[in-house]
Amino acid sequence: MGHHGDCIFCGIVSGALPCFKVCEDDRTLAFMDLFPVAEGHTLIIPKRHATDLFGMDSETLSAVSATSLRVAAAIRATLAPDGLGVFQLNGAAAGQTVFHYHMHLLPRNEGVPFALHSRVRGDDDALRRTAERLAGALP
Ligand code: AMP
Ligand code: ZN
């Protein structure tokens, strides 16, 4: 599993870097995106470093999917967005900026322009509160 060089998400997995955690299991970790495009914007990662989809195996991908299903249910139960974007970018050309595989869950609401990234850091208290609400609503 181990710390992979200067990978920030490996740093989060090892506990060297903080995150607003929603849940974790043996293989995966879910936490709030620090620059949320919308309230509830969550990332799900494999604990074991993979740069992108091409470094993943189907078992790990299934584990990420299973966690994303649980978090999606919690997002729906707490925030009730009009829709939910599930996306995942591979390679700088696709817009990937953190090179440790991650799946985005992005609540979507009618009338809000579509964006994949934000440059505005989320407020710590708001992120913590949202993480706690989601954690408390997991199926
Ligand atoms: P991507 O473009 O798919 O690689 O997205 C990387 C995401 O990670 C962006 O949405 C960033 O806001 C988010 N991000 C970057 N650093 C952190 C961090 N330390 N904790 C949580 N999210 C982060
Ligand atoms: Zn990593």
Quick rundown:
It is built from three helices and five strands, in the order αβββαββα.
Architecture blueprint of SSEs:
Blueprint: H1 8-14, E1 21-24, E2 28-32, E3 42-46, H2 58-79, E4 83-87, E5 103-108, H3 124-136
Antiparallel strand pairs: 1-2, 2-3, 3-5, 4-5
Helix pairs in contact: 2-3
The chain binds adenosine monophosphate (AMP) and zinc ion.
Zinc ion binds at residues 4, 7, 9-10, 49, 100.
Describe the fold and architecture.
The protein has one domain: HIT family, subunit A (2-Layer Sandwich), CATH 3.30.428. The chain has 139 residues and is of the alpha+beta class. The chain has a five-stranded antiparallel β-sheet. It has helices spanning 8-14, 58-79, 124-136, and strands at residues 21-24, 28-32, 42-46, 83-87, 103-108. A hairpin with a 3-residue loop joins strand 1 and strand 2. The protein contains three helices and five strands, in the order αβββαββα. Helix content is 30%, strand content 18%. The protein is globular and about 35 Å long. Helix 2 (58-79) packs across helix 3. The structure holds adenosine monophosphate and zinc ion.
Range of helix content: 25-40%
Major pleated sheet? 5 strands, antiparallel
CATH superfamily: HIT-like
* Average predicted local confidence, pLDDT: 96
Number of domains: 1
> Order of strands across the biggest sheet?
1-2-3-5-4
Instruction: Compute the separation of the termini in Å.
Output: 27 Å
Uncertain stretches: none
Would you state the CATH class? Alpha Beta
Order of helices and strands: HEEEHEEH
How many runs of DSSP E, i.e. beta strands?
5
How much strand content do the residues show? 15-25%
Gyration radius, in Å: 14 Å
| Bound ligands | adenosine monophosphate, zinc ion
Q: From the coordinates shown, what is the CATH architecture?
A: 2-Layer Sandwich
Query: Treating each run of at least 4 consecutive H or I residues as one helix, how many helices?
Result: 3
What fold name goes in the CATH topology slot?
A: HIT family, subunit A
